[in-house]
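Re: weekly structure request thread

Next one in the queue (492 aa):
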Amino acid sequence: MLFNSADFLIFFPIVVVIYFLIPEKFRYIWLLAASYYFYMQWNPAYGLLLLSSTLITYFGARILERLDKEKPRKVCLCIAVILNLSLLVYFKYTGMLVGFASKIFTAISHQSLNWEVNILLPVGISFFTLQALGYLIDVYRGDIYPEHNILRYALFISFFPQLVAGPIERSKNLLKQLATPQKFSYENLRRGLLIMLYGFFLKVVVADRVSLFVDTIYNDPYTYNGIYIFAATAGFVLQIYCDFYGYSTIAKGAALVMGIKLMDNFQAPYLSKSIGELWRRWHLSLSTWFRDYLYIPLGGNRKGTLRKYVNLIIIFAVSGLWHGAAISFMIWGFIQAVYQIIGDYRRKLEKFISEKLGIADKSQTIGNKLFANLITMTLFTFSLIFFRSNSLSYSKVVLKQLFSVNNWYVLFDGSLKNIGFSEHFIPILIISVVLITLVDVAKYRGKDVVESFFAQSWWVRMFAVVTLLLFVLSFGYYGSDMDAVQFIYFQF
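Done, posted below.
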């Protein structure tokens, strides 16, 4: 069930109304039933997969609680982690591994061997797998007590607003909230609905409309080459941000309506002045998960510069592989690590030169900030070619076609108009981007945008809400025959 579907617009109010009408002690059970119903709308068999991950980590944590010696606890943790990850590996990486094995066999035996594996990737498996593993590791470390109520723990893994695309919540935050019955709050209701409306705006007005332009060009790079590919890649930068940020925002708002606070998954990443800063602001639940459960255990930056850089490469290669079972995603992750290593050296060099020559640090001037942001976004945009292409061979085609012609003039002669969507939508898109930028600037400066909104007079709030609603209803794209368009990160 997609957030941007008619089914969800019926499902969500029913869930909320019943949630607040039934006795508090039964509310988590109702949310658990609703969450499994929500997930099984894609495929009823997915419920068994979700249950398997839940049972493995639940009983793994309970066994850890009973063990008092370190060696048995490590063995228990490793077994539970391997069992849980095996589900993810089977469904997500079997095709890639079989493909590699086929190529190796062909190279050795000089015989053609075409093994085909067609395993449907369950929606959201990468997200709830990491959430379950994070809980298990927290229990092992003693950061949280294991949850004894299996139904409440099952809800922690399956909570429907953030189940299929995050944010990847921590047990310290979400599990503790689910243990406390939430009371109805008008303040939470109006704030949650406003946040949801902004999320729908990001998704259906911006991301889905821009995707029409991006898909048209990326699906035919031999016709649309050169600057067309550059423009489509820039469009994808906007599309993926608004798509994923839109989902996280709707999830956050939906949870808040029920009194549950999810973490903020994005903090204005496109205003960053370095790739490192961008990743501290983009998909925070994933980046902090890799930091806490992989980067720091590997040694982080505590074992010298070389080890730090090796750890960065490992983390981002794994992050790329987490996004997709293809070499192109690993290359994309490797590029992010290289960007940060180069950036680290650049900062050290600048500091050394400024200290030796007594030059004042001018990095905080407006001009330098804008230039740093321009360089950051240019580098990030280039890397997304590998992300959008989904395969190494297609990435090579796109890169070749990008530099095959010098048709910069299409930026000014109107050739980019009417590709994917009508030129009449362009002014709406410009207005939308300006609005998103203003909101992000406020977030970047540390302001609570929702709090600032409700501090305005009632007519300003009414005008803003009505305008957003009209944008969603009038300019939103709902797919062919009004079918809801899937969120990009569902495929991960």
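The mean pLDDT is 89. Residues 267-391 form one domain.
Next request, please.
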